[in-house]
């Protein structure tokens, strides 16, 4: 028996089989892939991320679109409010309305740390046309490198303007800073800003009494625990979330997921537009209010008015992503493709 | 309303996956599915199961962050991954040596051997284990990396060279030195097989 053979034998004796814990390591990788890059600002938030949150990111558009017209009725419920940015802002034009939607998550253990524990995983600029018949949702990928203007942090410090990923704005100065960043980088006047927590989607769908989805094929996906027959199904909150998270069905691409999210979005809008039972509406509003932060300018009348308009107009939603390319300086980040991005924002502002 | 398409065929080559992951980061998970278990087994030999889990996770995070620098003309990502693993393992240099030293004192309690294997190898294999472990504990980091990538990971010389970023000639010389030391520790128990 030669030395290498003996060594191999020793090695076999020392070897262990992979434990279930490797799944945790896989999740760690997926979280990183989904953009878990908060270590720099919040070291205690590093390493660990609830993976599903990133997967559900696009789903927030859904919740947001329903929430914007109806639920911003937080009025008496005392939800959190923020002030709009100060200083030079793009001018307000016409009757169209622009809302900045932020999907954020809160780490389960960070409730006591307040808003610092929240991260914005999704940023969407939603433009409602003056007649409210059309809505355009432009998503701004969270790792877009942009210039973040000077902002005031939650603990009162002034953070100087600098280049960073767009989602850092929310981490630095909350909704107001994110708002200011989006206005300065897109040149689009943002009328209202809303931050929604992911954990709200499931509850929202349930508060609506479920929504209807249509599938061309039956789905049985153990990864997302989704089992649905072909054709129409009414799904509850949990199933709806699983539906938006489907990753291993279809071509597994983001585009396919965005399609499903748009479908769910429309299903929710449809349901909301039929929500004429005041009790159901009230309960929906209550649920939504608990997972929403918004600006004080969206008062009850404004929101009710908006809700009525959207219901009446049967708003159609177009979902887009700002044109982007890998960043020249850091290929792990992206930057907006110019002049295409600028043109898109011009069109949006003129809509 | 919703269209569910037929899943696309999974790209076969590691380099395809890495290329795809540059635009679609989550594609990198397929590389994890391919190699995490293999790397875990290797690291569990060198550092034990507790460290191995986290180290394998770390390996893939490092690999993921460096995916843009991967040379796509190399279809097999294993040498690259083993290179990262070797770097991370070297941080535990002292623990690794201590682990081998511990083996020189106590018999392996985590050996899962069938009685048949025991009979086949005879008592001798068990008897030489403390000697082997002692020799491993004394090897330099560089020599040990080469020896174990060959003996335990089963990489050929050129892939070891790739993994460690050293010339193939250096792989050979390190391997020879390492094996000489191991054989010395065994007291030349098998002079007939002194050279390969």
UniProtKB/TrEMBL annotation, chain A:
Signal peptide: none annotated. The chain crosses the membrane at residues 50-73. Residues 119-273 form the Cell envelope-related transcriptional attenuator domain. Keywords: Membrane, Transmembrane, Transmembrane helix. It comes from the Bacteria. InterPro entries: LytR/CpsA/Psr_CW_biosynth, LytR_CpsA_psr. Pfam families: LytR_cpsA_psr (PF03816). Belongs to the LytR/CpsA/Psr (LCP) family. PANTHER family: POLYISOPRENYL-TEICHOIC ACID--PEPTIDOGLYCAN TEICHOIC ACID TRANSFERASE TAGU. This is LytR family transcriptional regulator.
TrEMBL record, chain B:
Transmembrane segments: none annotated. GO terms for molecular function: DNA binding; sigma factor activity. It comes from the Bacteria. Residues 132-181 form the RNA polymerase sigma factor 70 region 4 type domain. Keywords: DNA-binding, Sigma factor, Transcription, Transcription regulation. SUPFAM superfamilies: Sigma2 domain of RNA polymerase sigma factors (SSF88946), Sigma3 and sigma4 domains of RNA polymerase sigma factors (SSF88659). GO terms for biological process: DNA-templated transcription initiation. This is Sigma-70 family RNA polymerase sigma factor. It comes from Microbispora catharanthi.
